[in-house]
Specification:
Blueprint (H helix, E strand, L loop, with lengths): L4 E6 L18 E6 L17 E4 L6 E2 L10 E9 L12 E11 L15 E5 L1 E2 L6 E3 L16 E8 L2 E5 L11
Parallel strand pairs: 1-6
Antiparallel strand pairs: 2-3, 2-5, 3-4, 5-6, 6-8, 7-11, 9-10, 10-11
């Protein structure tokens, strides 16, 4: 089994876990991202996420697919499953080997309203480890590169407080059509 692992990934990007250290030569197996290891309803799939990192070789390099993480920011558990173990059910994956911190907004749905023809600022945006270098982008559909029509491209987070982050498009008046 691996030694304790603590990793950080960023929502909206791919996640790679590398250099997993283990005891002896028992480095083969998989890490599963869960809310709690070994519990029937513990897969983070409740939040739209079930990620398994498979060990690609005995040097401790783990990878998952090139999918972009779209889950809510927060703390998740890294749960180990040895190479020859049956780990098809959450209750089979009981070995907690560490923590995955996912930086990003949480909860994912945080509705706000802006008025066409006016400036717009968004206050109280909640998340996990949000920073003033983060950006928000108004898109027709999240995960696609198509900005909302007649809407400014991106907004830099201007402040992060305990009550949430604030962002705005400055003095630019919004001209996007409402829905």
């Amino acid at each position: 089994a691996p030694l304790p692992q603590h990793r950080t990934c960023v929502a909206g990007r791919t996640c790679r876990i590398e250099q997993v250290n283990g005891y002896g030569s028992t480095k083969l197996g998989s890490l599963h991202v869960m809310d709690t290891c070994g519990q029937a309803s513990a897969f983070a799939q409740q939040y739209g996420w079930l990620t398994t990192f498979s060990l690609s070789n005995s040097s401790g390099h783990m990878t998952d697919s090139d999918d972009v993480l779209t889950q809510a920011g927060g703390q998740y558990r890294l749960c180990w499953c040895a190479e020859n173990q049956a780990c098809s059910r959450p209750v089979d994956i009981r070995v907690d080997v560490g923590e995955l911190t996912l930086i990003g907004v949480s909860p994912l749905v945080q509705d706000r309203t802006c008025v066409s023809g006016q400036t717009c600022s968004l206050d109280g945006l909640q998340g996990h480890h949000l920073q003033t270098s983060d950006r928000f982008l108004s898109l027709e559909t999240c995960g696609t590169p198509t900005p909302a029509e007649r809407f400014p491209t991106s907004a830099l987070v201007s402040a992060v407080f305990a009550a949430g982050a604030s962002t705005s498009w400055g003095s630019t008046r919004l001209t996007g059509a409402g829905r």
